[in-house]
Amino acid sequence: MNKIIYLDAAATYQKSESVIRTEIDFLTRNYANAGRGICARAVAVDDMVARSRARVAAFLNARTDQIVFTAGTTDAMNMVANMVQMSARTKLLVSDIDHHSARLPFVHRLQARAGVVGICPLDDMMNIDVNNIPYADVFVITAMSNVLGMPQDVAQIVRAARQKNPNVITIVDAAQFVVHNKIDVREWDCDFVCWSGHKIGADTGVGVLYIKNPEDFQPVKFGGGMVNKIQDNNIVWNLPPDVYEAGTLPLTQIAGLAQAIDELVQNRPSLDLIKYAYDELQKIERVKLLTQRDAAVLTFVVDDMHILDFGTLMGAREVCLRVGNMCASWIFKLMGFDGAIRMSVGAYNTIDDVKYFVKSVKEIVK
């Protein structure tokens, strides 16, 4: 068999030919820097960035000045952690479904200030328990666990947090949520949303940071493109979003982002493939499923087999999966495992891909 069966979309989504062509076309026909010139090509690049920003804004039901291009979710989370004021009196709330990139930037910064980190309770299904959300000044909300694959009711979580503290700052990690579900930031009413382009079929190196009130926060990166003018030692910043985008943007990646969004909206991954795999693996005695049938990913372990051994054997059959703790240590500690095996799909995957995956699992655990 010569075809690679790629079932790791949750780690990074395969790029379509049209996204690749869009980026190649930009590189070969229209490449220049943005915000740095007045020649026709430079203006065309500025227009491309503006169009892509407008497409992202429409995708999230946001304004264009609320959309900041970043290097990815991790970069965006680190930016927010440095934008938000925290002190020894700050109560930070996180949860055990967080990815390392969602929690660590805030915990690291707060611990340096001797603040308090609280853990938001999960319910019996390991979802954020909206009925038992503690008081928080800053609340990091994972919209979908990359291990469990269940969408959280972000709007309800934000409302519940605001009942405890009307001034709570809410930051949503939507890296996994964005590919499977519509995001409406006005409905969510959160302060920040972060996600990565490569999770939806755009390129690596580009992400999106939504800021509800961009005029309320100071920039945390400094360099070219963010300054309006300098008089003596007095610096006048550009207006948002430019003030948050110091330096050269990832222009090639931005060129492909709008195309990837258009394709995602038209053709999201089919979770029927996950359900089929779930039903088949449920029949295998040694396989322990860790996710629900209607989850966006399928995560499991095999009795008496190390996850790395399983991953190696699947790789030898040319099946690409994710094995390990998936940068989500806390949920595995809660479940009593060191890590697991994860299968996830993109819109490009077929039932034949999943049938071959199931067949390979049966052969390995037999």
Outline, from the CA principal axes? globular
Taking the sheet with the most strands, its summary is: 7 strands, mixed
Order of helices and strands: EHHEHEHEEHEHHEEEEHHEEHEEHEH
Q: What's the level 1 CATH class of the largest domain?
A: Alpha Beta
Structural class: alpha/beta
Q: What count of helical segments does DSSP give?
A: 12
Number of domains: 2
CATH superfamily of the largest domain: Type I PLP-dependent aspartate aminotransferase-like (Major domain)
- Compute the number of strand runs: 15
- Our estimate of the beta-strand percent is 15-25%
Radius of gyration: 22 Å
Question: How is this structure best described in words?
Answer:
The structure is a single chain. The protein has 366 residues and is of the alpha/beta class. The chain folds into 2 domains: 5-15 and 269-365, Aspartate Aminotransferase, domain 1 (Alpha-Beta Complex); 17-265, Aspartate Aminotransferase, domain 2 (3-Layer(aba) Sandwich), CATH 3.40.640. The protein is built from 12 helices and 15 strands. The chain has a 7-stranded mixed β-sheet, with helices on both faces. Helix 4 (100-111) links the parallel strand 3 and strand 4 (116-120). The two termini are 21 Å apart. The model has no long low-confidence stretch (mean pLDDT 96).
